[in-house]
Amino acid sequence: MLAPAGAVEALRQRLAAVLARIDAACARAARDPATVRLLPVSKTVCEERLRAAYEAGFRMFGENKVQEAQRKWEAMADLPDLRWSIIGHLQTNKAKVIAEFADEFQALDSFRVAEALDRRLQALGRRMDVLVQVNTSGEESKFGLPPDEVEAFAKQLPAFSSLRVRGLMTLALHSDDADKVRPCFVRLRELRDLLRQSAPDGIAMDELSMGMSGDFELAIEEGSTIVRVGQAIFGTRVAGYVDPSVARREG
For residues 83 and 103, is the Cβ–Cβ distance under 8 A? Predict the structure, then answer.
C-alpha cells in the first residue's frame, strides 16, 4: 500500500529541514554529518503517515511504548526492511514482547530487564543492540542510572550474550535555556569517554543517543551520534492520542 504523494512530499520537506539543521550543527562542531544518525520518533503517528515516511526513505522508527510499537510492527509486516527501536522505559514483563521484533533498545537501566530480555532473545535465536540509559539531569521523574553507577553496571553486561551494548542514552533537562540543557550532554559524553577506558571486552561505547526536536543541535555540538526527532519531522502530536489497539480492547 503506497502512501499519498502529497504526504510523502511534505515529509520529505520536513526531513530536508531537519537534515539541514543537523548539517549546520555538525559544521559548528567540525564534525562529519555522516557520524550522526537521525532516528524518527513515531510515537502517536498513525500507520498511514508512517508509510508516507517509509516512502520518503525512512527505514527505522523509534517508539516509546511497547504496545504501540508491536501493533505498528504487525500492521506493517509487509515492509520487511523496516526496523524498530524502543526508546522508552521497559518493564520486565514487556521484554518478551520487544524481543520478538525490535532491533534496538535504547533504555536499558536494570539487570532485571537485561536478564529478561537476554533470556527471551536467546530462546528466539536473536540478538539486539542496546544502549544504557543514564539520568544526567538528576530529575526524579526521569528513568536511567545515576552516572556514578554506570561503570559497575556496564562491567556486568557481558553476562548477557544476546545484548550488543553500543553506548549510552540520555534525556536532557527540559528547558529553553541552553546553558541548563548543554551540561546534560557534556556529562554523558564525558562519561562515555571514561567508560571507553574501563569497558570489558564485547562492550562498545561508541554511540551517544542524545537530543530531541528541541535540543538536538546542542546535542550534536557535544558529540551525539543518534538524535531522536519526532515533532520536527511528523509535526505536532495529536492531543489525547489513544493507541487504537487499546481503544478496541476497552471498547
Answer: yes
Q: Which residues are CB-contacts of 106 (< 8 A; sequence separation ≥ 6)?
A: 62, 85, 86, 87, 130, 131, 133, 169, 209, 226, 228
Domains annotated for the chain, with CATH where assigned, are 5-232 (3.20.20.10)
Beta carbons of 61 and 41 less than 8 angstroms apart: yes
Do 220 and 29 contact (CB within 8 A), yes or no?
yes
Long-range own/partner contacts, residues 242-246 (CB < 8 A, 24 or more apart): 243/65, 243/67, 243/68, 243/71, 244/71, 245/67, 245/68, 245/71, 246/67
CB-based contacts of 127, cutoff 8 Å, min separation 6: 121, 162, 163, 164
Alpha-carbon torsion, ordered 188, 99, 62, 112, to 10 deg: -30
pLDDT (tens place) for every residue of the chain, 251 residues total: 555 667 788 898 999 999 999 999 999 999 999 999 999 999 999 999 999 999 989 999 999 999 999 999 999 999 989 999 999 999 999 999 999 999 999 999 999 999 999 999 999 999 999 999 999 999 999 999 999 999 999 999 999 999 999 999 999 999 999 999 999 999 999 999 999 998 898 899 999 999 999 999 999 999 999 999 999 999 876 544 444 433 333 33
